[in-house]
Amino acid sequence: MDREAFYRDPYPVYARARAAPGLTFAEELGAWLVARHADVREVLGRPDDFSSKGALQPDVIPGPRVFAELAGAPGGAPVVLSTDGPAHARYRRPLTRGLSPARVSAALPFVTSTAGDLVASFAKAGRVEWMSGYARPLPAAVIGHLLGLDPADVPGVVRAGHQAEELLFTPMPEEDQIAAAHEVAAVRRLMDAHAAGSRTDDNLAGELSRGLAPGPGEPTAGQRDEITSNLHNLMLAGHLTTTALLGTAVHHLLRDRRQWELLCARPELIPAAVEEAARYEAPVQGFRRTVTRPLELSGTQLGEGDRVFVSFGSAGRDAAVFERADEFDIAREPVRHLSFGHGLHGCPGALLAREQLRITLELLVRELPGLRLAGEDVPMTATLIHRAPEQLFLAW
Prior knowledge:
This protein has helices spanning 3-8, 11-19, 37-44, 64-71, 85-98, 101-123, 130-135, 137-147, 154-169, 174-196, 204-212, 221-255, 257-265, 270-280, 312-315, 350-367, and strands at 24-26, 31-34, 50-51, 127-129, 286-291, 295-297, 300-302, 307-311, 372-373, 393-395. By secondary structure, it is an alpha+beta fold. Strands 1-2-8-5-3 form a 5-stranded mixed beta sheet, sandwiched between helices. It starts with a helix and ends with a strand.
């Protein structure tokens, strides 16, 4: 199977890997595939043995002109996703504070208002492309709000986030790479300026700025790089993951009409539907880890420097843990899944993502109970970074 085909539908590969003894080496990933729920949980619980450095290995290495374009802008420092030990703890602390349950709760009126405005903007049309009409704009607006960004800047920041992802995961001509890098560099400068003006603000940008450059005085150049990199990473992660969850949840609810009708009849099942959506289609399919010493995992000998791909998406379909694991069923008794990670690297924004989906489902059940798929063919994006429909046409 070529890499694009695997990215668009990895589940057959996952199923074979779960059934096989030991670990399976996935040529598409250049890594050992950690596919079973128990093994995924074990790897995530052993950060000393499985380093997060290189968690997002690029599929494409941009050319030197691209790096030259980025070199003049702040950023380029490590981020919380790909660090270990004290560095990871230092990057994560301000995120934990900025995305605490109290902070998320305080943001819910904004989420509810924005969600309502988006649905109202297309409700009379009787038709919408869900991803561009709702699933992308809502999380982008929400994370922009939590960061304290000017709403006028959010679309450009989101666009540059997609450009940054494409630079690393999508082959394209060099001139297009340079144009994308130019846009990414511009957003890094914007983030740098925003962080400088947010040091005393009670928002996520302020938490990061103070947390990574504590004490009086201006941040050093190195601290500015760290703040900018982690702000940019947070903006990207804060909307891509939730966009994916909003897309796949609605798709699976409507693909089996009985699920949607059950949810409309019993809206008290919405919290269970949120968990089932995350279990069934992990919004981020997984991350790489690097083995730090010779060890054995699931009967497979691994050496120092070996790479593994820890598949949250496969863990969610493990029949050893979930009855009828390949069925989407919002009425199932919820079982703890690993779709938002586990342990020290568990997603700090998981609660925010869950709440956005909860609010969305409550709104749709109330305002658009006649919702249905407007087309049967729903291609998925060719990436494991965020598992989402490319387009999702809905009608009512």
